């Protein structure tokens, strides 16, 4: 019986780490889904618990990347065209 106590304590630490890991990724993914108006993704991310796997896929694969402020390298900018003179 005494041999199981360290196992249970270690298992509790593992569960705590997994809950924190999953919660952080879920919060980020839900925030991005809400900002992108992805209602289907938002609902799926709320219901399905995949220990962060679905959330990471949404963030890096499926989400539209918001490039405001020139933060994205893949963004190509064209200078604005001057108004036509009459």
UniProtKB/TrEMBL annotation:
Domain DUF5652: 14-65
A Pfam family of this chain: DUF5652
Transmembrane segments: 6-28, 40-63
Superkingdom field: Bacteria
UniProt key word Membrane: yes
Keywords: Membrane, Transmembrane, Transmembrane helix
Name listed for the protein in its UniProt record: DUF5652 domain-containing protein
Lineage: Bacteria, Candidatus Magasanikiibacteriota
């Amino acid at each position: 019986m005494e041999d199981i106590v360290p196992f249970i304590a270690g298992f509790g630490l593992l569960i705590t780490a997994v809950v924190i890991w999953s919660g952080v990724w879920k919060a980020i993914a839900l925030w991005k889904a809400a900002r992108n108006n992805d209602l289907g993704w938002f609902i799926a991310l709320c219901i399905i618990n995949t220990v962060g796997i679905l959330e990471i896929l949404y963030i890096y694969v499926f989400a539209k990347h918001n490039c405001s402020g020139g933060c994205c390298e893949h963004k190509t900018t064209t200078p604005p065209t001057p108004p036509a003179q009459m």
